Amino acid sequence: MPTVLVAMLKESTKAGNKVFDDTNLRKSRAKACAADGLGVEEPVDKAGNRRYTGFIIHDLRRSAIRNLVKARVPERVAMTISGHKARAVFDRYHIVDEADVLAAMKRVVSVAENAPKTDSEQPESQ
Q: Is the pTM of this model over 0.85?
């Protein structure tokens, strides 16, 4: 973990600011996300158990990988940052959307339009 982040967490803990309860991260995160409108908690039984649907922690990992790749960080470096050892798992997190495909095709067209003409592509002189 980067030393800057470790220092920020230590400072936050000293001030008594806890983001989540130490006893059950999953329940604390679900409650906080539901309170912020990032998800919904619904009762599932009479015992008070609840089911959370919505934002999950892995959404942050997916976003981080997407941002690293868009920032043109080499994928091997992005894998190291995200903790992925297997390429296949990294690829599952690296979501490609329609805008990515469109941008790639525009780059290809731009390169093709600016490429030097070969002899077979030159107009015949008369």
A: no
